Amino acid sequence: MTEIDAKSTAQKLYGNRIRVRACGICIENGRVLMIGHRAILGDTTFWAPPGGGVELGEMIEDALRREFLEETGLEVEVGKMVLMNEFVNLPLHGIELFFLVKKIGGELVLGQDPEMKSEEQLIQKIEWMSLDEIKSLNLSEKHQFWQKYGSFDEIIV
């Protein structure tokens, strides 16, 4: 499977429709948990907080707990919503709801997207990153969420 094939599959799965996404901001020891994804639209690794699509009939907080477990191996408690973001870069269009989350169990592992074949996985890396590390990434390499905040304290308030 080539990278072009994986991008095409991802665009078919996630594109050309509006997706509601639940995303979690997990901060520990001055670092936030981030997932490095194979880029769907560009050519570089794309870093974003864990999260994913809400399924029909699924409550948003349940979707976030499921996504965290699938992507990171961690069980989380969902806290307050800190941001709603609309992402539009066709063929992708997402309504993203960001919540603070607290780790309550599990062990950190590099997870997967169950809807994708093993050779098509978008999840490539998982890291605890400082805000300085996130800020040092090019805009195309990180979720636009990080352009809205200058510190973790601004998120937690």
Give an account of the 3D structure.
The protein has four helices and seven strands. It has 157 residues and is an alpha+beta fold. Strands 1, 2, 3, 4, 5, 6 and 7 form a seven-stranded mixed β-sheet that branches. Its cofactor is Mg(2+). Residues 18-151 form the Nudix hydrolase domain. Belongs to the Nudix hydrolase family. GO terms for molecular function: hydrolase activity.
Name a few traits of the molecule.
single chain, 157 residues, alpha+beta, seven-stranded mixed β-sheet, 4 helices, 7 strands, 22% helix, globular
Lay out the secondary structure.
Elements: H1 3-14, E1 17-28, E2 31-37, E3 46-48, E4 51-53, H2 60-72, E5 74-89, E6 92-106, E7 123-129, H3 131-135, H4 152-156
The shape is globular
Largest sheet: 7 strands, mixed
Helix content: 10-25%
Q: H/E element string?
A: HEEEEHEEEHH
Helix-strand makeup class = alpha+beta
* Number of extended strands: 7
* Amino-to-carboxy terminus distance: 44 Å
Q: Give the low-confidence spans.
A: none
Number of helices: 4
Tell me, rounded to a whole number, the average pLDDT: 86
- Rounded to an integer in angstroms, the radius of gyration calculated over CA atoms is 15 Å
